[in-house]
Sequence to fold (603 residues):
Amino acid sequence: MAGSPPPPIDALPRTTRPTLRGSFGMCASTHWLASATAQSVLERGGNAFDAATAGAFVLHVAEPHLNGPGGDLVAVLATAADPSPRVLAGQGHAPRRATIDHFLAEGLDHVPGTGALAAAVPGAVDSWLWLLAELGTWELTDVLAYAIDYAERGVPVVPRLAHVLSTVEDLFRDHWPTSYALWMPEGSVPQPYSTLVNPTYARTLRRLCAAATGETRTGRIQSARDTWRTGFVAAEVAEFAQVPHRHSSGRDHAGVITAADFADFTPSLEPAVTAEFRGTTVAKPGLWSQGPVLLQALTVLDHFDDEQIDPSTARGIHTITEVVKLAMADREAYYGQLDPVDAEPVVRRLLSRRYSEERAALVGEVASTEFRPGDIGVAPYTPALVTRRPADLADGVGEPTVQQTGETRGDTCHIDVVDRWGNIISATPSGGWLQSSPAVPGLGFALGTRLQMTWLDPAAPARLAPGRRPRTTLSPTLLLRDGRPVAALGTPGGDQQDQWQLPYLLRTLVFGLDPQEAIDAPTFHTTAVVSSFWPRTWTPGGLVVEERAGEAVVAELVARGHDVTVSGPWSQGRLSVVTRDPDTGVLRAAANPRGAQGYAVGR
Fold:
C-alpha cells in the first residue's frame, strides 16, 4: 500500500538547512574545513577520535582567533567498547611561579586578560596526541597532514577573523612585532576571504611528525609528545615568554612559564558529572569547568511545567534566565579546581532534589538583580561585583574583541564526531588565540590566557595557585539514554556556552524539535553573571535576545524587569551536534548557520 503523500512545502519546518541523516559517520564543527577534514578521516577508515584530532588541528589553522596550539581542550566522550561518559581534561594548570604574591608584586590586583603572564600550561596539543595514542588508530603523520597542508597552502580569512585582526593592528604593530609579522605579513590586515598562510606552524607540526619514531604506533606518538613537552616547543616558549611585553594592564610584564612547566602537564580521562532530565542523562565536565551549571539549571527547570520553560515564549525565557542566574551565582560561589573526590559532595549537594526545589522557589514573576548563591552547607565565595550595563556590550556578544589596551573577551570553537561503530566525542578546544599574547616567532602560535579566570584571593575556590587548573568555561556535552550515548553537542561562547546549550536541550528533549530546528530557533542569554574574562564585570538584570524573538516577546521581558539588549537576528551561539540511535544505528548531525562558518557533514 502506498504511503501518505508528502506534506505541502509550506508545512515543512522552516530551517536554514536539513538535519543530516545517515549510518556511516557524522561530523559537525564551527568551521567547514574542520568538518570536511574529520569526515575525510572517517571515509578513509579512521574512527571518531582520529577524525576529531585531525579536525582540531585544522581548527588551529582555520580559526586562529578562536583557538590555538598554545591553548586548552575539554572533551566528553564514550567508546563503542565502553559507553560510560568520560571527560578528557586537557585544561593546563598554572605554572610553578604563577603565585598570587608574584602578581601582587607586579602591581596587579587581577590576572591580565592578555599577555604571557596570564598563560596556563598549554594542554591542547598534548591532550589531542594522548587521545590519538590511547583511542585512535591512525599514525600521527597522517592525522597532521591536513593541518600542515592548510597551513602551508592557506585558508580563507573569514570575516570575523579579519575583524579581530583589524582591532589589534595597532597593538601588534606598536607592541607585539612578532604577531604583526606573522598575521600581517604584507603590512596590513588581510581582507575577508583572502588567503592566510602560517608556514611557521606548519614547520612546527613537521618537526613533531619527524620526532614520531619508534616500533609501535603508540610509541611513535609518545615520542612526538615528549618532543612537545620537553623539546624545542617548551624551550622556545619559555625563552620568549621571559621577554617583557605589553599586557592588558597597560604595562610590560614578563611571563612566568618555564620548560619544566610543560613537563608537569599530563592529560587524563575523568568520570563525567551527570544529571537526569526527562529520561535523558546529561554528562558534563566537573567543577573545574562550568559544566555543572547546565546540570543545575536542568534539575531546577524540571520543577516547572512545560509551558513555563518554553524558550520560544517570554514566560519561558524569563523562567530559564532566572534559573541560569541562580546556577551561575553558585558557579562563582562554589566552583573551582577540585579533585573529583573532593568535588563529589559539593556536586551532590548542588544537584540534590531538595536544593533544586529551594532554588526553583526563588523564581518570581519579575527579574532579580541580586547575586544569589545558595546554601549548601559550605561558606559561599562572593567576588567583587563590577557592574557593566548591556549598552556597553557589542552585538554578537561572546565573540572575542581586543582593544588597544589589550582587553579581551574570549570565544572558542567546537567539534563533534560520531562513527559507525558507536565511538562519539564532543570537544571544545580554546585559548591560545592570536590576540592572547605575542606570537612565539619560531613556533607560529601564541600562548593562552586562561589564568585570567582565576582570582588573586586565597579564599576563592577558583584562586590562582601553582599546579591548579583555572576554572574554565569550556563545557561540551554528551547525552545518554538507558546508559547508551545518543548525542554529542557544544558551542563556543565563554560564559554563554551552557546558556546556549540549554534552550537547545529544552527544544529537543521537551518540545520535540529536530536538531537543526532547535539550533536555528532564536536564542538568548543573560549577562547577569560574573564574567569569566577580564575585567570580570556583570550586568544586573541583563538579558540579550536575538531580534527574531519578536517585539512582543521583548516587550514582555522588559515589563518583567529585564534589562534587555536586542542583538542581531542571527548573532547568538554557534552550536553543533551529532546524534546516534543505538537501536538502529541511524546517525544525524546539524550545525549553526550563525557566522556562516559552521557546517555538518556525513553520510
